[in-house]
Amino acid sequence: MPSLEINGLALGMHGGESLGADTASTMMQWALPGATPAAVRAKNPELVARRDAEKHRDAADDLSLAEFDFMFAPGGHAPMVDFHDNPVLGELLNSLRENAIPISLICHAPVAMTSARYRLDADGVPIVNDDHAFKGARVTTVPKYGEVPMFKVGYPKIPGEKTRPLYYVDEALKDAGYDVSLTLNPSAIRVIWDEEHLLLTGNGPQSVDAQADKLFQIVAARSGAPA
């Protein structure tokens, strides 16, 4: 089963470009006496609507990758478990590229590209190709120097348990042979479109609006529609 990213469910994480202000605002609301989930949701209807807008495909429908306009994967720490070094995901990424489908990854989700060295044979057995078609692609993601402070003050703690991931996404991508571009300010917005590899990446939730705009432009240009 996919791993749940509890931080990604926090309303503040859906603030887009106003991530900092919305996070601070909802944290202050939670600190008030008598705060309840219903009360916080009532004060933040736009964030609630944005969080609840996700739609899911009917598993009974026929599926062809060639029919997709793009693939998008959200971030958070869950992809660091599910997307890293995953042969099934590697097969998906390479199949999307072969069908010329743009791939959009934000925040921690670019770690998926560590799986691009895998393909599956007809029996589902992984095949490793370290000289794969995505190698050397330009990407951005969350920097280690942005993660470390959040581990100390920003994320929930479980008493007696370690909750820090065992690696950092930017380092994993560099080790996998990608051209990783980071911002000095971890909260600054950066979106990179590598047209050669049909790969769009954003460096965190603060970039979601800019990345959505760029993805719309890419899809519109490919379809011949006005951007």
Question: On the 0-100 scale, what is the average pLDDT?
Answer: 89
Query: Helix amount, in percent?
Result: 25-40%
What about the largest sheet?
4 strands, mixed
Total number of beta strands: 8
Question: Are there runs of 5+ residues with pLDDT below 50, and where?
Answer: none
Describe this protein with a few key phrases.
single chain; 227 residues; alpha/beta; 4-stranded mixed sheet; two-stranded antiparallel ribbon; 8 helices; globular
3D structure, described in words:
- The chain is an alpha/beta fold.
- The chain has helices at residues 19-31, 37-43, 45-51, 78-82, 87-98, 144-153, 169-175, 208-223, and strands spanning 71-73, 103-106, 118-120, 126-128, 138-139, 179-180, 191-194, 199-202.
- The protein is 34% helix and 11% strand.
- The relative contact order is 0.14.
What topology emerges from the helices and strands here?
Layout: H1 19-31, H2 37-43, H3 45-51, E1 71-73, H4 78-82, H5 87-98, E2 103-106, E3 118-120, E4 126-128, E5 138-139, H6 144-153, H7 169-175, E6 179-180, E7 191-194, E8 199-202, H8 208-223
Parallel strand pairs: 1-2, 2-8, 5-6
Antiparallel strand pairs: 3-4, 7-8
